[in-house]
C-alpha cells in the first residue's frame, strides 16, 4: 500500500474519531499512527546499518506495534466470523416435524421384559440415594493395658525367683500376646525402678536388660520416699 494512502487513511480516521474519543485516547492513536508512518517511510529508504540508539529503540517499538497489529487483525477476523455465524443463525429455524417414514423402522422397539410394576421397583432402587461410604472399625480391637496391674504381675514373677535373682526383660515379657502389653510392662518396670523395688543391670550398650527384685515392695518404697 502506498505511503500517501496510509497517511490519508490515518488522517480521515483521526477526524472521524475526534468528536467521540477523549483527548488522551486520540493522542495515543496519533502516536501509534506517527510511529507506523515513520517505520513505513524508513522501509522505503535504502537499507543501511543502524547505529543510533534512538533508531534501535524505534525498531523495538516497531516490533511491538507489529505484534499488536497482528493481534488486532486476529481479533478482527474472529469478530467477523462471529458476526457471520450470528447472521446465519438468525436465518435458521428448528425442524418441528415427525420422523420420516424411511427412518421409523431402522431401530426396533425397546423390549424390557418386565411389567410396569417391576419397572417401577427397578426405578425406585436406581433412584434411591446410596449411603455414604464409611470405613468399618469393628475388626479393630484395642487392648487396654493397666501399668499398675503389670507392675503387680512383674513383682509376683520376680518375687517367685527371689531377691537378687536376675531375669532378662525377654523372659518377663514372654507371655505377652500384644505389643501394647510389652510397652505396658516396660513402663511398669520404669515405675518399679523409680520406687527402688527392682534393680537393672546391662553389661553393654544395647545389650540384654537384666532385672532383679531388691526385696522391697513398691508400696514400702513409696512410703520411704515420702518420709525422706
From TrEMBL:
InterPro entries tied to this protein: ScpA
Pfam families for this protein: SMC_ScpA
UniProt entry keywords in alphabetical sequence: Chromosome partition
GO biological process, one term: chromosome segregation
Superkingdom in the source lineage: Bacteria
Name this polypeptide is given: Segregation and condensation protein A
